[in-house]
């Protein structure tokens, strides 16, 4: 029995595991002004770790973005470990750093959450484009999604680096084959992508509202 369960779990793709993680993300809105919105840290961090695995399938193009995700995850986890009860809610981290006046600093956890949110937006957007426009070149889809999600927040250094990396993205089929199961059809892979998007989009919308409330949405990188 245990072996069967193990084999079933082993067959799951990163997308399918990501869908499971997102199903555990329940954002609780305050009933009145004395309460705080609750955005759970652990399932979101787990989801971001899975995003790294998906981006790895694109290859060296995503190396810088992958490194940023990893560093931002580590920053949040480090603070979480100092008081898991309090910092299991990401909003408490934003409140703490705003009160300390450190929330806009480069190495703040607030910025870490901001950039993780933007990366989630980029990844979800890219998967949606792939699902709808399989005939388009992967390079064009990555660039289109980058221009819509990350480019408005990047300075010239980050933008220039990304442009160079675009030249080494894989073709559509190679990427789709990499993120799907061995015997999975493109139709069921599209269904996984649509499910992921339907779960992630409202979560990102809620996080963006909170980030805007704390004055973080307009911060840029170098």
Please describe the structure with a list of short key phrases separated by commas or semicolons:
222 residues; mainly alpha; Glycolipid transfer protein, GLTP; 11 helices; 68% helix; disordered N terminus
The end-to-end span amounts to 52 Å
Which CATH top level class fits?
Answer: Mainly Alpha
Q: How many strands appear in the DSSP assignment?
A: 0
**Shape-level CATH architecture:** Orthogonal Bundle
Gross morphology is: globular
Mean pLDDT: 85
Strand count, sense and barrel status of the largest sheet are:
none
The stretches of 5 or more residues where confidence is low (pLDDT under 50) are: 1-8
Keywords: Lipid transport, Transport
GO molecular function: ceramide 1-phosphate binding; ceramide 1-phosphate transfer activity
InterPro entries: GLTP_sf, Glycolipid_transfer_prot_dom
Protein name: Glycolipid transfer protein domain-containing protein
In a nutshell, what does this entry contain?
The chain is an all-alpha fold and 222 residues long.
Could you please describe the fold and organization of this structure?
The chain has helices spanning 2-11, 14-22, 41-56, 63-80, 84-87, 90-100, 109-132, 138-149, 156-165, 172-179, 186-213. The chain has 222 residues and is an all-alpha fold. Helix 7 (109-132) runs antiparallel to helix 11 (186-213). Residues 1-8 have low confidence and may be disordered. The chain has one domain (39-214): Glycolipid transfer protein, GLTP. The chain contains eleven helices and no strands. It is globular and about 50 Å long.
């Amino acid at each position: 029995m245990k072996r069967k369960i193990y084999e079933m779990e082993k067959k799951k793709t990163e997308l399918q595991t990501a869908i499971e993680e997102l199903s555990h993300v329940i954002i609780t809105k305050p009933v009145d002004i004395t309460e705080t919105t609750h955005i759970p840290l652990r399932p979101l961090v787990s989801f971001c770790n899975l995003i790294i695995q998906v981006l790895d399938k694109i290859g060296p193009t995503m190396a810088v973005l992958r490194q940023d995700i990893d560093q931002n995850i580590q920053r949040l986890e480090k603070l979480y470990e100092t008081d898991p009860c309090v910092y299991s809610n990401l909003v408490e981290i934003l409140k703490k750093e705003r009160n300390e006046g450190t929330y806009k600093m480069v190495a703040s956890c607030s910025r870490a959450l901001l950039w993780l949110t933007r990366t989630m937006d980029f990844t979800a957007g890219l998967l949606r484009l792939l699902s709808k426009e399989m005939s388009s070149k992967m390079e064009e889809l990555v660039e289109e999604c980058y221009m819509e999600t990350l480019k408005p927040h990047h300075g010239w250094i980050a933008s220039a680096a990304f442009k160079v990396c675009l030249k080494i993205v894989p073709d559509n089929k190679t990427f789709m084959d990499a993120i799907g199961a061995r015997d999975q059809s493109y139709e069921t892979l599209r269904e996984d992508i649509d499910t992921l998007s339907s779960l992630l989009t409202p979560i990102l919308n809620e996080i963006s509202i909170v980030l805007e409330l704390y004055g973080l949405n307009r911060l840029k990188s170098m």
